[in-house]
Amino acid sequence: AAPDEAAQADAEDEQPTGWVEQITPGRFTGQTVIVTGAASGIGRAVASRVAREGGRVVAADISEEKLGELAATLTDLPAGAEVVPVAGDISDQADVERMVLAAGDRVDALANVAGIMDDMSAIHEVTDTLWERVLRVNLEGTMRLTRAVVPSMLTAKEGRIVNVASEAGLRGSAAGVAYTASKHAVVGLTKSNAVMYAKHGIRTNAVAPGGVATGIPVPGQAEFGAPVLRPHQINILSLATAEELAASITFLLSKDSVNLNGAIIASDGGWSAV
Ligand code: NAD
């Protein structure tokens, strides 16, 4: 590597944020939380944190193998905590019904984290196949899970839903037209839910991550500028960690976010403030 790259790699190795997870014991005790995309990256970190804070987690993901790995790592959980893996596709209605069935009578909170990237196509390049695939997972999957959990929340007169949008849901992005449109739509879905269910005690908020080091395949990573220093980030690290995103998301999933509804929280170290 060129000297600059080597120095940057060293700096990153030596430069943890200094932040450590502030586990709140019992924050989710007695609650059932569905987390999609729970086998990898941000969803995995959310599932892990909710379980370690006492919750019963329905861990939903299309990757059965990686879900097994998650359950195997989460041993020694507090009393009442549990991880129930459910393999399935969030864009498939029958699979979504199985996920919600696994939750039992009541769903206290839902984290719609699962999502896919696109191949960075601009609109004159986008194929029907790519457009439909990205919209089906990122938008329709979020709609299907939400539609399936709302009845139990209406009965309980309480519930929290957290959607994962993106920096690309807040402004134009080179991430691709399908991805950018899907994440803007997730923002719209979030605000619509917030308004429509406010009087029923159901709060819906979204987190818009900036760059996060996860397993999400990013086509043409070099074009995005793989790990770069962003001086405006508070922690001046290049990419956030999945655990840092989970800290934002679990706050919104918890009852402590009581006064937030329809909020789109940029969890990006300040990127979108510039
Ligand atoms: P990831 O690839 O590590 O995790 C995504 C998970 O979703 C995977 O386990 C995958 O198997 C699962 N999944 C994909 N399609 C599915 C489907 N149809 N049904 C069920 N599960 C499915 O990615 P990540 O970075 O943790 O991404 C999580 C969310 O964060 C996504 O919505 C993504 O768009 C968003 N996001 C990520 C970044 C980033 O830089 N990583 C930035 C902004 C937004």
Describe the protein.
The chain is α/β, with parallel strands linked by helices. The protein is 41% helix and 16% strand. The chain has 8 helices and 9 strands. A 7-stranded parallel β-sheet has the order 3-2-1-4-5-6-9, with helices on both faces. A two-stranded parallel sheet has the order 7-8. α2 crosses α8, α4 (93-103) runs parallel beside α5 (128-156) and α5 runs parallel beside α6 (177-197). Mean pLDDT is 88; it is low at 1-16 and 225-230. The structure holds nicotinamide-adenine-dinucleotide (NAD).
Write the layout of secondary structure elements.
Layout: H1 3-14, E1 32-36, H2 41-52, E2 56-61, H3 64-73, E3 82-87, H4 93-103, E4 109-112, H5 128-156, E5 159-164, H6 177-197, E6 202-209, E7 212-213, H7 221-224, E8 240-241, H8 242-253, E9 264-267
Parallel strand pairs: 1-2, 1-4, 2-3, 4-5, 5-6, 6-9, 7-8
The structure holds nicotinamide-adenine-dinucleotide.
Nicotinamide-adenine-dinucleotide binds at residues 36-37, 39-43, 61-63, 66, 89-91, 113-116, 137, 141, 164, 166-167, 209, 211-212, 214-216.
Helix content: 40-55%
- How would you write the strand order of the largest sheet? 3-2-1-4-5-6-9
Shape: globular
The succession of helices and strands, N to C, reads HEHEHEHEHEHEEHEHE
The DSSP helix count reads 8
Portion of residues in beta strands equals 15-25%
Question: End-to-end span in angstroms?
Answer: 30 Å
Counted beta strands: 9
Major β-sheet profile: 7 strands, parallel
Bound molecules: nicotinamide-adenine-dinucleotide
Unreliable segments (pLDDT under 50, ≥5 consecutive)?
A: 1-16, 225-230
The helix/strand class is alpha/beta
- Quote the average pLDDT: 88
Question: Gyration radius, to the nearest Å?
Answer: 18 Å
Family: Belongs to the short-chain dehydrogenases/reductases (SDR) family.
Keywords: Oxidoreductase
Organism: Promicromonospora iranensis
Protein name: NAD(P)-dependent dehydrogenase (Short-subunit alcohol dehydrogenase family)
